[in-house]
Amino acid sequence: MHSDLMLDAVRAEVAYRTEELRKAGRSAWAVRARRAARHVRAAHTEVAVPAQQRREAARATAETAR
Asked: Alpha-carbon distance 23 to 34, whole Å?
């Protein structure tokens, strides 16, 4: 009887871990698919994005605040 309970517990744990691994595999695949889809959609847009310009940080010092 005790061995039957242990066998059931082990089978339940194996089923749980198998499902978790399956979910993890699906989510990783879905992330790659979404990233690829975003890249394709971004390549086909007609939006003009201005070039980024570098700005110098203006730092206020104690000497200039007086």
From this structure: 16
**pTM flag (> 0.70):** no
Instruction: Please tell me the distance from the alpha carbon of residue 29 to that of residue 50, in angstroms, as a whole number.
Output: 33
Q: Name which of 11, 31, 34 is nearest 23 in CA terms.
A: 31
Torsional sign, CA 40, 41, 46, 50: negative
Helix (H, G, I), strand (E, B) or coil at 31: helix
* Distance (Å, whole) CA 13 – CA 16: 5
Per-residue model confidence as pLDDT tens digits over 23-41: 887 777 788 888 888 888 8
Question: What is the predicted pLDDT for the residue at 31?
Answer: 83
